[in-house]
Amino acid sequence: MNYSPTIFDVFSGAGGFSLGFEMAGCKVIAAIEQDKWAADTYKYNNPDAKMFLGNIESFSDEYLLSEIHDIPDIIIGGPPCQGFSICKKNAGDPKDPRNSLFTEFIRMARIFNPKALVMENVPNIERAKTKSGERVVEIIEKEFNALGYNVYHTILAASDYGVPQMRQRFILIASKQPLENPFPKQTHFVLSEREEDISNVLIKCPTLWEAISDLPDIEAREGAEIMKYTMKPTNPYQEWCRLGSTELHNHLAMKHTKRLVERFSHMTWGQSVSDVTDDRLKQLKRNGNGTVSDTPYDQNNRRMHPNKICNTITAAFYGNFVHPYKNRNFTAREGARIQSFPDTYVFLGKPTVVSKKLLMKEGRTGEAYLCQYSQIGNAVPPLMSKAIAANLISQLFSERK
After folding, report:
1. Domain 208-378 has CATH 3.90.120.10
2. Percentage above 90 pLDDT, the chain
3. For 146, phi and psi rounded to 5 degrees?
4. Per-residue pLDDT tens for 19-78?
């Protein structure tokens, strides 16, 4: 197929969703993102796409139509309707997606009437109900049906498509054309969950160590935003990650205290800070004048197993996981590898920031944006996105030359 379907990413973040569609042969023409640092990252890696920086509600129908001259074939995005994110005060039931930014996703469908839309969200949205007992997914389906779309939804596991991570996402596809196979077939398997004899059908998903072991060997407080590779790739996944990359970005280790480094040294694979028994190294109560915390958070700083896929990378993964061999948290680049971003994808903004509440209190509003770790953790894994995109465009554009 010579034609490159055009993509509009309306809740783009740093661009993981878009990148997967580009890998599948699409052309991203525009994106909307309200966070400045995430938008900076997106624009740096997608220089030809038009970036609309700001709240999606602030862009009128007329303005978007006047600025986007090529009508997008597919609109993608992850509207934050889990929870849900209220657009307007006193909007009623907060669990109703019609009171969330999902309405903006529907508005984009009305404006541009694309061939398809692809929406991602947290798996729990499938079980969510409004106060009146309506299933949230059924409401979303009805909204798309009213615009003439066939709707399909499921939960996909990122590791089924070669992402070295335990990550599941809710995926909804709305298509004007009925789809016989709306979702991609599994291409990878996790060795610990399957028997070896299926390896001639599926590819083994890389483990955590297979994803990151070729990156420069650094300790806490070491590394840099730009550095040279020090080792050669040792497997196909690493070779793919490094394709076209001449230097490494975002491989800067966190500045842990000596006490925290020592605490990590007492943890083995699978253990977290709550498993540390040495009283000298236990977590202290905040403002507790040196008193040991009696409720250490079990999910904080858990040491990952090298020969398994990683736990789910979240927006706060810098405080969730400890490197399998080093006494430090992951670097942003290690997180990006676990999310299946190639090394050519560069993340801008600060690596980490303190809480937004503290930044606002101290008047540091210029730092109240998504740091590199949050941008990476919030992203749709590109290889998962690529699988969704390739499967979709093979059906929508199979006869297009």
Report:
1. yes
2. 66
3. -65, -20
4. 999 999 999 999 999 999 999 999 999 999 999 999 999 999 999 999 998 899 999 999
Asked whether the beta carbons of 120 and 171 are under 8 A apart, the reply is: yes
Can you tell me which residue has the tokens 């990006």? 336
Would you give the distance in Å from CA 280 to the centre of its chain?
Answer: 37
Enter the pTM of the model. 0.90
Please report where in the chains the tokens 């407080």 appear, as a residue: 221
Q: Which residues are catalytic?
A: 81
- The arithmetic mean of pLDDT across residues 268-296, rounded, is 60
Tokens of 17: 């969703």
The CATH number assigned to the domain with range 6-189+381-396 reads 3.40.50.150
For the cut 60, the answer to whether the pLDDT of residue 321 exceeds it is: yes
| Spatial contact of 150 and 178, defined as CB atoms under 8 Å apart | yes
Q: How far apart are CA 157 and CA 168, in angstroms?
A: 4
- Contact (Cβ atoms closer than 8 angstroms) between residue 208 and residue 303: no
Residues 6 or more apart in contact with residue 246 via CB below 8 angstroms: none
What is the three-state SS of the chain?
A: CCCCCEEEECCCCCCHHHHHHHHCCCEEEEEEECCHHHHHHHHHHCCCCEEEECCHHHCCHHHHHHHCCCCCCEEEECCCCCCCCECCCCCCCCCCHHHECHHHHHHHHHHHCCCEEEEEECHHHHCCECCCCCEHHHHHHHHHHCCCCEEEEEEEEHHHHCCCECCEEEEEEEECCCCCCCCCCCCEECHHHCCHHHCCCCEECCCHHHHHCCCCCCCCCCEEEEECCCCCCCCHHHHHHHCCCCCEEEEECCCCCHHHHHHHHCCCCCCCHHHCCCHHHCCECCCCCCCECCCCCCCCCEECCCCCCECCCCCCHHHCEECCCCCCECCHHHHHHHHCCCCCCCCCCCCCCCCHHHHHHCCCHHHCCCCHHHHHHHCCCHHHHHHHHHHHHHHHCCCCC
Handedness of CA 131, 133, 139, 140 (dihedral sign): positive
- Where, residue-wise, is CATH 3.90.120.10 in the chain? 208-378
The DSSP bridge partners found for residue 321 are 302
Nearest to 10 by CA among 69, 62, 48, 54: 54
Question: In the chain, which residues fall in CATH 3.40.50.150?
Answer: 6-189+381-396
